Amino acid sequence: MFNSCSEYHQCWRRTGMTVLRASDFQQPILEKAGDNLRIDWGSVLLALPDQSGASAATEARETAQSNFAAGKPFVSDDLDMPRRASEGALLAASLDFGHVGSESVSRHILVGYDDLYSIEYLKRWMRPYWRRKGMTIGELLETAEREYSAIDRRSREFDELLATDLRQVGGEAYADLATVAFRQTIAAHKLVVDVDGQPMLFPK
């Protein structure tokens, strides 16, 4: 079982290929400034593509855990919202991998975050780069699912190329450490689009 929840009040909506959404009820976009802050606007999304035996729903934590333990599918949404995250609401998904055998089985879910506006720079609110041509989060998820195999292949190829280069420079232990540091460093950046359409990369 995979579950995701927000620190804040939660609301949900289901669309398309079973997409669950959780967001802050207030949506104070770019209102706070300073360090040691977490984003408190936008929406986290859990998308479940059509797969055999897969199910997803917004459920209370206890209900989701008991259903999963009993092997029951998630079928109905808990619509008691908004409410505090401390009251235990989840975006829950269950994937059926069947019986363990000699053949490998692959399943996946998509997780996204729609922040609407990412950064305020020189009094300008800047959108994430993927929104530069007006793409919506729904279209982004559909594109990600459609191109999943190609993206997965390219990612694995890049991982292997990076690891090979790092091994040549500093050996196996160095490669292990540097690949983790690379992911951590990239994750601390935000790619946005400027008013003229140019990409801008902001490091943390």
Describe the structure.
By secondary structure, the protein is an alpha+beta fold. It has two domains: 1-115, no CATH class; 118-204, no CATH class. 29% of the residues lie in helices and 23% in strands. The protein has helices at 61-69, 137-146, 148-187; strands at residues 2-4, 19-23, 43-47, 55-60, 89-94, 110-114, 119-121, 124-126, 189-193, 199-203. The strands form four sheets. It has a three-stranded antiparallel β-sheet with strand order 1-5-4. Strand 7 (119-121) and strand 8 form a beta hairpin. The model is unreliable at 1-15 (pLDDT under 50).
Q: What are its keywords?
A:
single chain, 204 residues, alpha+beta, 2 domains, three-stranded antiparallel beta sheet, 3 helices, 10 strands, 23% strand, globular
Topology:
Layout: E1 2-4, E2 19-23, E3 43-47, E4 55-60, H1 61-69, E5 89-94, E6 110-114, E7 119-121, E8 124-126, H2 137-146, H3 148-187, E9 189-193, E10 199-203
Antiparallel strand pairs: 1-5, 2-3, 3-6, 4-5, 7-8, 9-10
- The general outline is globular
> What is the total tally of β strands?
10
Question: Within the largest sheet, what's the order of strands?
Answer: 1-5-4
Rg from C-alpha positions? 20 Å
Average pLDDT confidence is 84
The arrangement of helices and strands along the chain is: EEEEHEEEEHHEE
Number of separate structural domains: 2
Distance between the termini: 32 Å
Number of helices: 3
Bin the helical content.
25-40%
The computed structural class is: alpha+beta
